[in-house]
Structure formats: C-alpha cells, structure tokens
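Render this sequence as a predicted structure.
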Amino acid sequence: MAVEPNPAAPYDYCVVGGGLWGSSCCHSLLELLPASAVVAFIAPLEPQSINTPTDNDNHWKWEDSHTGVYSAHYDEGRITRELDSSEAWSRLASCSIQRYRELERASGVSFYTESGYLCLGTQDEDAYLRKVDAVGKTCRCEYTSLTTKQAIQEHLPSVSLQPNAIGLLQTKNAGHISPRRLVLALHTLIHQRHVDVLDTHATKIAVVDGVAKVTLANGQSLQASKVVVAPGAFINADLCGGWDPPVRVSGRTVVLKDVTELMDDASLQLAQLPSIISCCADTPPGPAVLYDMYQLPPICYPNGRWYLKIGTGDFDHPLVTMADKQAWFKGPPGQADEERLLAYLHATMPCLDALSHATMNCALTFSSTDYPLIDWVPETDQTLLVAVAGNGGGAKSALEIGRLAALACLNQWDDVHKRELFRIPDT
C-alpha cells in the first residue's frame, strides 16, 4: 500500500522509478541492507484507464487525462534469451534468466514462458549470426545451428522462409516474459518488506551538503542520503541534480495481430512458435529491407485476446521533452512503422492477412556505449546513482541490472561483469 513520505528525517536510500530496473533495484537493495535501513520507493502505478483496441480505434493507449510518466513495462511480451552478439549482454541476460523461476516461486506471480528463441538469417546475410554464434560458444549457451530451410521450417510451420534461410535455435533459457507481471512479482515482494512505497513520480532532485532533496509530483518532498535514479525513458537533467544524462530516447511502434480465432488450428501450430529475431528480413513490395525485426509468439493480453506481436528498430522517433514522451505514449502510432511491419508479417505469414490488428507505442533509451549506465552522477558526492539506458535489451536482463545498481549504490560490484562497461563515458 502506498504511503506518505516522511519529511522529518532523511531516508537512508531512495529508489526513483517503479519500472523494471527500479523495481529490481529496490528489491535487491532490501535483500542487501540490514532491516534497520530506512528506504523509500517512488513508484507510480500504471494508469488504470486503458483504451483497448476497437474497430474505430485500433491503437492501444492511455486516456488523455493522464499527465504523469509512463513505463515500458505496460505490456505482456518481451523476448528473453541468452544468445546475443555481445558477451556482456549475454551474461546480463543469463544471470537474470537463472533467477526467473525463483522469483516466480517467491512472489506467486508467473511471468516467464520458455517458448524458445530463434535467431534467423540467410546464408547471404550471416554476419550477425556469426557474431551470435561466437558469443554463444564463449558464454557456453545451449543452442542448435539450423543450416537449412527445411530444418527451420520444422519449428516454423506457418512461416514462409527464404530458400537460403539459416538460424540458431535456443530451446532452454529463452522465450518471452510479461514485463507487467515481472514488475508485479517484484512489487509483491517489496510490499512485504519495511519500505515506504510512494504512488507518484519525482520531478526534481537536488543535492545540498551531501543530501538529496527529492521533489514529488504531488507537491510533497523527501530527503535521502543515497538515491538511485531509474526512471527509464523519462530520465532528464532535473532528476540528476542538473547534470544532463548522455542518453537519447526513441519511440517505437509495434503491431499486434489478433490471432485468437486461429489458436486451435492444429495445422498452423501458432502456440508452438518461438520468439524470433531476424537480422535481415526482406519486405515486399519494393527493395526496402528491415534489418532489425523481432516477433513474439501469441500471448494472451488483459482483454482476453491472443496477439502475435512484431516490431522493428528501423524507424527512429526522437523524443526529447517530457511533452514529447507523453504525447508518444498516447499515440498515434508511427504510420511507416505500422505499414512496413504489416507488409512483412503478411508476406511471411499469409494466414494472418485478413485478421484485425492493434498498435502500441513504447520508448527506448540508448547510451553511446551500447551498455546500461550504472554509475554515480558527476559532482553529487556519491549521492545520486543513475541506472539508465537499456539500449533495446533491458527488459530480459532487468533482474541482474537492478541488482548491479543496488550493489553500485553500496559501492560494491559483481566481477562477473566488467565494471568499466557500465561507467558514464567521459565527455
């Protein structure tokens, strides 16, 4: 249950951000700290009024009356897998995935489906697959190389493949998670501990004489000796003591095909599909190519419908101001994104052509290093620690990234991960 902040005395620790990373960090801090530590968790709830897709408006959005922040975990599907083109990201994912089942048991909330993962390419476009294969061997991931179209077709019976298709298949420690339910699992455990959970968002953080003053959107404020700043795409200089974080935020539109009526069609086997990332996907009509396509198997959403989700990183929608970000989450979708994703999906899965679809917007945060920034904010006397920039891969690795942020806040680290990769770069 949310409480009022205690203005009388400083908190020992405060975590700003109730999304995947902030929730994971708060949970890890509570595991690491003595019971006597006084902790605040600033975690605004997901907006309750959701406009679900209809015949007149197929964009999944939140009511215009919401004036606060949004989070990328307001969804039911994110790909998870150990296979990656980066050793660092592979290790982050592996460490997180190993704790999924433990968190499910402890919280009583299920969020992980081990449906498997297929990294798809062609013999002509295999550079990315070769990187993933090399990292997979280095990190000792369990997977199978599929070197023919026929071998891949056994796992994708309803998908039209290119003649020279090849792939890497991971059946264990891979599939998809519900980010919404992962956050619920973490919050369930957090609420069992001694912590003040505040249902609002922070608007400004200033450091004076080694103490952080956190101003809240509801007009209240609190003080803390240490603050972890993890607000996702809504990061800004006001939340970092005036320091401008070196990140960029970009909007994404995803398409969700309503496949509810096809789930019982044995010939399509939609329920057996793995999560898919295609490193080079030809998109008819025309010569345009989607280089960064991902697709999830059908997932049941809160409205009871089953959706097959597809997205791409090929379209950049820069989001700079608070108003930019709020407007993006409220819609409308990116028109080019929607058109190209539908063209690809209809070309590769013609059985879905006549089905209705929905769209949804989210936002990603990128760093120049391609890794999360988990470091003390400059000139704040180790009072503010930032944990930001998922670079498109932050959901699957949230448990480990949050744990690393908690350790860093205590001036500790886990040497499984190279500390220098997560430092704020010199400007």
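Summary. The mean pLDDT is 92. Residues 97 and 297 are 19 Å apart (CA to CA).
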